[in-house]
Design a protein that fits this description.
about 170 residues, alpha/beta, TIM Barrel, seven-stranded parallel sheet, 7 helices
Length: about 170
């Protein structure tokens, strides 16, 4: 389905389950997401290909694992990108919710590969987003309503739009 990365939140998926998921899924590179974790788990136990962090977690995480980073930026981070340059070699992708041409151009000028976060709020801008110089888009699943039951309606809408834009 064209998925390059599959991220699992460390706060919800322990290393044993993460490794099992990695064995079940063929193709996508695996990302351990600690961007919403209060504590730093043993990152080496996850056997991931990337670590997803918020920009304020970079310095605390840099010494805990040699893995490359995906860094989630918010609007405030885009005002001051100086903190990222210290870790430039380790940052492979920057994920941003701010998908205006001005902000994407600012990140592109710094030579970051950009992943634009697309959700219900900005899915109506999908055509505009796909015309920006980005490396990809981030789609986020929702939590299960009950064990084994999940609503994929919001993802289906975006995937249908993507399919239509390819045609």
């Amino acid at each position: 389905m064209g998925v390059q990365f599959l991220a699992c939140p460390a706060a919800q998926v322990d290393p044993t389950l993460f490794v099992a998921i990695k064995g079940w899924v063929q193709g996508p590179e695996m990302v351990v997401d600690i961007s919403e974790s209060a504590e730093h788990p043993d990152l080496n136990a996850y056997e991931a290909d990337f670590i997803l962090v918020n920009s304020n977690q970079l310095s605390a995480t840099a010494n805990k694992s040699p893995l490359p980073f995906m860094v989630r930026l918010n609007a405030d981070d885009l005002l001051s990108l100086d903190q990222l340059t210290k870790y430039f070699e380790r940052i492979q992708f920057v994920i941003t919710d701010v998908v205006s041409k001005k902000e994407i151009d600012k990140l592109s000028a710094l030579k970051y590969k950009i992943i634009a976060s697309v959700d219900k709020k900005n899915s109506n801008q999908l055509t505009e987003i796909l015309n920006l110089p980005i490396a990809g888009i981030l789609l986020t699943g929702e939590s299960e309503t009950t064990p084994g039951l999940k609503n994929y309606d919001h993802l289906s809408t975006i995937l249908e739009e993507l399919e239509a834009s390819e045609g």
